[in-house]
Amino acid sequence: MNKTDDQIIHEAMGKCWHDFSLTKSFNGFPETFCAKCGQDYKDQWGGDLKSYTSNWADYGPMLEWAQKQEWWPAFKRWCFVKLGIRVDFIPDCLAILLSPSSGAPALAEFWKGKESRG
Ligand SMILES: [Zn+2]
How do residues 17-34 score in pLDDT, each as one tens digit? Predict the structure, then answer.
């Protein structure tokens, strides 16, 4: 299954994109856990999966985090080469990074390339 841009970003941040498909029985009661990291579903409140591509509340903090990473300069170079966007040039930057629906897919695309390059 192809990962969504949201999942790619979430995992790039070192977080688990939970898969709550694991059920165990405790004292006769079924409990659900993440099959990847073992997180108990009831500790989640369903609130950990983010939508970086559509929700500013998720996208904004992610973008702030991204700008502090060592690969941010590489992302800026990638934007220029692949998208013709100069991230340090405010109008260009705003054109792509101001919107979750264009900024998040660009970051996901960059990370896909990063993963395949190792
Ligand atoms: Zn998990």
Answer: 988 899 988 888 889 999
